[in-house]
Amino acid sequence: MREANALSRPLRDRAVPAILGRRQRYSRITPMYRISFSKYEGRTVAEVMLRDAPYLYRLAAVSAGQADRSEMLVEFNRLRKQLRRARIHKYCRGKDCEKRAKWMTLPTDWKGRHLARPYYWCDGHEPWEEDGVSDKLPVHFDVIKRFRFDKRGQKIIFRKVRSALGIQEGTRLTEEKAIRFFAHLSQKG
Ligand SMILES: [Zn+2]
Q1: How far apart are the CA of 115 and the centre of ligand 1, in A?
Q2: How far, in Å, are 48, 79, 108, 111, 189 from residue 185 at the CA level?
Q3: Phi and psi at residue 130, to the nearest 5°
Q4: Closest CA to 142 of 10, 68, 134
Q5: What's the CA-to-centroid distance between 95 and ligand 1, angstroms?
Q6: How many CB atoms lie within 10 A of CB 27?
Q7: b/e burial code for range 6-15 (CB count within 10 A of at least 16 → b)
Q8: What is the pLDDT of residues 16-53, one digit of tens each?
Q9: Interval between CA 100 and ligand 1 midpoint (Å)
């Protein structure tokens, strides 16, 4: 009975006190590292991941081996791993294929640089071109790494992948929602 009540109450009542009010206790269950520097000071890695993953990927790249960043990196990698379980909301581009997409490809320009214009594919379909197109890549923020020297490309591909993963953007993307999003993925299997 008590459990049923807990479930029917909105998240604000049941989970947030555990997350925000008793942060220490919660952190033993799920680490909730807060960024302690830069423009995202005080924000959780989970929220920044959904708001501005390119920033975190760049931060991670320059933080390797820095002792005071190790907790942040652990949390970043934990969220990356969980994100692999996220449901993809795009459908395969294959002719008459109605399957939900599992992969994406990106066009590449004449210099071999990726363009932030993804095409989505199921397991069984792939692009008909052989040149000028990337391998089939997971629909995941890790694709940001392919835009290493292209900050604008990072931002565009991030927004496209975020949308493909069905994540709402903007002011609606609160800390609470970010934490709930990742908590849901960790329960998925
Ligand atoms: Zn298909």
Answers
A1: 22
A2: 17, 9, 32, 37, 8
A3: -105, -35
A4: 134
A5: 7
A6: 13
A7: eeeeeeeeeb
A8: 434 444 444 344 445 578 888 888 999 999 999 999 99
A9: 8
